[in-house]
Amino acid sequence: MPNSSMSYARAVALSLAVAAASASAAQAQTERAAASAVQSEKLSPVDQQFLQDAGQAGATEIAASKLALTHASDRQVREFAQRMIVDHTKLARNLDVLAKRHGITAPPAADSAVIGSLQNLQGAEFDKAYIEKVAVGGHQKAVELFRKESESGNDTAMKAAASKALPVISHHYEMAQQLAKAKAAS
């Protein structure tokens, strides 16, 4: 009799272990399906284009600003560039999180035409081109891009991110305009 009660206890324990493992596997499968559903949730063409354009604008800003640290002759231009690297790196991280939620994992590339046009310039010539093409021109386009997404984007998280970033980018644009005026006056 002791052996049969021991066998019964083992059988019950084994059954409970199998049931727990099955429940755990079912829960894991449910979680994977939910994660997959979020990733496969398609962005509208408007939101996809925003992610692409915003990502490229940010990558261009960062790459051009890194060039400015070594190519610019003006201290104010280098300080502006350093600030752009910090701020746009934070913004890029936020956009990357949103992109990954929708299964987009390829990092955006910088605008090679803009970077190429700056690469061989030095000193005052670089300063002028950087201010015109990146600081003022780039931020003017970025303000419009983020404003448009914040007003007419379809994905609520994307719209919220654009709305949150818009004041920062608008401030960058104002700073760029001030920098351009200061350099034109000197």
From TrEMBL:
Residues 1-28 form the signal peptide. It comes from the Bacteria. The lineage of its organism: Bacteria, Pseudomonadati, Pseudomonadota, Betaproteobacteria, Burkholderiales. This is Membrane protein. Keywords: Signal. Gene3D superfamilies: 1.20.1260.10. Residues 46-179 form the DUF4142 domain. InterPro entries: DUF4142, Ferritin-like.
